[in-house]
Design a protein that fits this description.
Rossmann fold, 7-stranded parallel beta sheet, globular
Length: 274
């Protein structure tokens, strides 16, 4: 009997207690999370708090941030937020500094904020859209890492950073060519940072999600109906990921249990590109 799930099979929602754990993966750490108002970033903020971290959330939409912070606090976790545009260097530096002001240090950071592009061949993308994709998906993490490295050096002394890449960065990406190119450049930046800051005890890695049920993916599916089903049909696990499943991988990379892992782009793609 064929037991492979249908391509349309939804991802199961991983269980969550939301209650912070004094012995969790990130117990005692201060965590910075960008793009934390929704999707993978919001899932990560909740999970990091459950795993014992004090969390500063950043994104551009304050109402979303307030909702996630309220959920974390209601469960007994520690969280606050700062509205921040990742393409604004002054704003990024101020947001990182806010984490230090609130919690006295910075240990780990998850640079997850991103923006998509209208799907289609690269000659159909406007110059303005190109600039926006590059500013948020490449310049944004560069700005963030510069500020985060400085904050870790000045406070915790050692730490870890994880950037959100994409499996779409690993091969040709004709549907999202500039998004894929920006994420591939981010992979290179991640590796360079890992080599540069490893001697100081600062690890830098990336996660490369596959098909993940975020608002960005659903918007793509709305524009091109059948996209999610098609991607699921190419995935050995036969389904898309829940954002929390990507957050679990990021939490491990940020934790001391990944103490000898740096310079890695970890695919979390259900086997899509195995």
């Amino acid at each position: 009997m064929n037991t492979t799930p249908s391509p349309a099979t939804p991802a199961p929602a991983p269980s969550s207690s939301l209650s912070p754990s004094p012995s969790g993966l990130l117990a005692g750490k201060v965590a910075f999370v960008s793009g934390a108002g929704r999707g993978i970033g919001a899932a990560a903020a909740r999970l990091f708090a459950e795993e014992g971290a004090r969390v500063l959330l950043t994104a551009r939409t304050e109402s979303q941030l307030r909702t996630v912070v309220a959920e974390i606090r209601a469960a007994g976790g520690t969280a606050d937020h700062v509205v921040c545009d990742l393409a604004d260097g002054d704003g990024v530096r101020a947001a990182v500094q806010r984490a230090v002001e609130l919690y006295g240090r910075l240990d780990v950071a998850f640079n997850n904020g991103a923006t998509g592009q209208p799907p289609g061949p690269m000659d159909t993308l406007s110059e303005a859209d190109f600039d926006a994709v590059a500013a948020v998906n490449l310049k944004g993490p560069w700005l963030a890492m510069r500020a985060q490295v400085a904050a870790v050096r000045a406070t915790a002394g050692r730490g870890a950073i994880v950037n959100t890449s994409s499996v779409g960065s690993l091969l040709a990406n004709p549907a999202l060519p500039v998004y894929g190119a920006a994420k591939r450049a981010l992979n290179s930046l991640t590796a360079s940072a890992a080599v540069t800051y490893g001697p100081e005890g600062i690890r830098v890695n990336a996660v490369a999600p596959g098909t993940t049920l975020t608002e960005m993916l659903r918007e793509w599916d709305d524009r091109s109906p059948g996209t999610i089903d098609h991607l699921n049909s190419q995935t050995p696990l036969g389904r898309a990921a829940d954002p929390r499943e990507i957050a679990q991988a990021a939490a491990w990379l940020l934790s001391d249990r990944a103490s000898y892992v740096t310079g890695t782009v970890l695919r979390v793609d259900g086997g899509m590109w195995a």
